[in-house]
Amino acid sequence: MTTINKEEIQKFSNLADEWWDVNGKFKPLHMFNPIRIEYILDKLANHFKLNKHENLWLKKLNILDIGCGGGLISEPMCRLGAKVTGIDASEKNIKIAKSHAGKSGLKINYLNASPESLDTNLKFDVILNLEVVEHVEDLDLYLSSCSNLIKKGGIMFTATLNRTFISYIKAIVGAEYILRWLPIGTHDWNKFIKPEELEGMLMKSKFKNLETKGLQFNPFSRSWSKSDNHSVNYIMVSEKI
């Protein structure tokens, strides 16, 4: 049993050299990153009672970034003091991530691995699943593997795309075919997951939902913001119980 979909991994391996090019194929992700990071940090501060004004204020946290790609989230977490492990099923992504972290002087434990292959004696305070679950082969196995790797009371962030008509128009027709923000074929709408479906699967893996927030793009300001609209992009925060 595996969560790895080789076709999905190959898509991102083919783009790996562009991870840190803010004007390259991952430009939409670079635009998306600030609001994701802001939201995650606010939730971490609140959940773990941390002072965001302290130096290296994430130093008490052990974070697992699954599907870390080139390290766009791993690096900011590390810079704030967290002990970060980043895993990705693409060996090429990991090589890019290691190289960039080395040049930046950051110590991040990058591994070419999937969550089910990790030692379950490893226990993390936080797991980041950001734009990953719509690409995995076996979502039940994936979420149960995450459950085995997180401490009781720890929190997991799952960011993905809702399976709605509007998400098909915006995330596939718009982003891939019209705006060409993403290579055609990046997403399979049938693999998008509705929030209520994801919440139910997380409950089976011993997580309770703390909050679901929409993330919405404003084409006029060309910026992202938090929203109560979950029709396209959303992020779910869950606690291990």
In short:
The protein has 241 residues and is α/β, with parallel strands linked by helices.
Could you give the topology of this structure?
Layout: H1 6-13, H2 27-47, E1 62-66, H3 74-79, E2 83-88, H4 91-104, E3 109-112, E4 124-130, H5 139-148, E5 150-161, H6 165-178, H7 195-204, E6 207-218, E7 223-227, E8 233-240
Parallel strand pairs: 1-2, 1-4, 2-3, 4-5
Antiparallel strand pairs: 5-8, 6-7, 6-8
Can you tag this structure with a few keywords?
241 residues; alpha/beta; Rossmann fold; eight-stranded mixed beta sheet; 7 helices
* CATH topology (level 3) name: Rossmann fold
First-last Cα distance: 25 Å
Kindly state the percentage of residues in helix: 25-40%
What general form does the structure show?
A: globular
Q: How many independent structural domains?
A: 1
Strand percentage: 15-25%
Which CATH architecture?
3-Layer(aba) Sandwich
| Average of per-residue pLDDT values | 94
Low-confidence stretches: none
Q: Major sheet: order of its strands?
A: 3-2-1-4-5-8-6-7
Characterise this structure:
An eight-stranded mixed sheet has the order 3-2-1-4-5-8-6-7. The protein has helices at 6-13, 27-47, 74-79, 91-104, 139-148, 165-178, 195-204, and strands at residues 62-66, 83-88, 109-112, 124-130, 150-161, 207-218, 223-227, 233-240. It has a single domain (6-240), classed as Rossmann fold (3-Layer(aba) Sandwich). It is α/β, with parallel strands linked by helices and 241 residues long.
